[in-house]
Amino acid sequence: MFNNKPRIGQELLDVPMGDMIRQMAFAIAEAQIVLDQNSIDVAEMMGGLTTVTDEAGNVTFEDSRVYFGTESITKGEAIARHNSTTNIQQKAEIRGVLAGDYQPTLTSTVPPGFTPGAAIAENTYIDYQGFYHVGTVGGGASVQVAYGDLEIALTSPSTDAGVAVSLPRRISMLECGFTPTFYQFVDTIIEVKISIRYTQEGNTSSAVNNNLRSSAARIGHGFGRIKFGRSVQTSQVNASYAQKYSYSAEGSSLLRTKLVPIPAPAVLEQRIQRMMEEEFNNEGTQPVQTPA
After folding, report:
1. Which sequence spans correspond to the domains of the chain?
2. Is the pTM of the predicted complex or chain greater than 0.70?
3. Given this model, what pLDDT does residue 202 score?
């Protein structure tokens, strides 16, 4: 009995420890890639632009700068900035600050029955069905333009160049001194355990009882009688057999790691500094120093 004894050594060799460790290591590596990609996205957003990809795969950029104080420029500079940017929000900010001191001006109401191309007053425009419709010289047919393409003109070119206005200042978060945070997995522990338990018990017992039976008889009279007989032998066997067997195998794996922030790469800080110096040279304003 007990012919199916487990081979403990072979059981241990059959555990795919290499595959388990490899899968855990790959999981850590994949998580690190996701963390790095997130840090790159944050760095891009802090730089002032955010990449936007639509369902068709077309890539556009959104302004992610924040408002921080105001800047003083002339009306002429404000209008030039308005006409050179395609940022709809920035255009609206400039028009709001100029408060109508420019051409064309927004018509508060849409004329009844207005259709694209209909004539409207010169130097006015209408906001209709997602477009601006600008009146042409002499009040002729209006011209449809996108929100980002609307241009305005100075009302007093001789004086507007010397009139200052205050516009909301928008700067990137990097210029405010923020830097993206990068994370890294360190002190990673991969532990695999297996526990095998095997027990067996067995006992046998037997008992044999032999019984002998005989019988005899005579036929005839006197000396002529004939004697005959028979004997029967029986054996009784009482046997008992018991077997107990148990086997269990338990396995466990442990993955412990530590996620810590690490300083921004030195090359990134150098690029940030150079970017702000270039903006300073272009705009004539003092750049904000990033902390070391």
Report:
1. 14-46+182-259, 66-179
2. no
3. 63
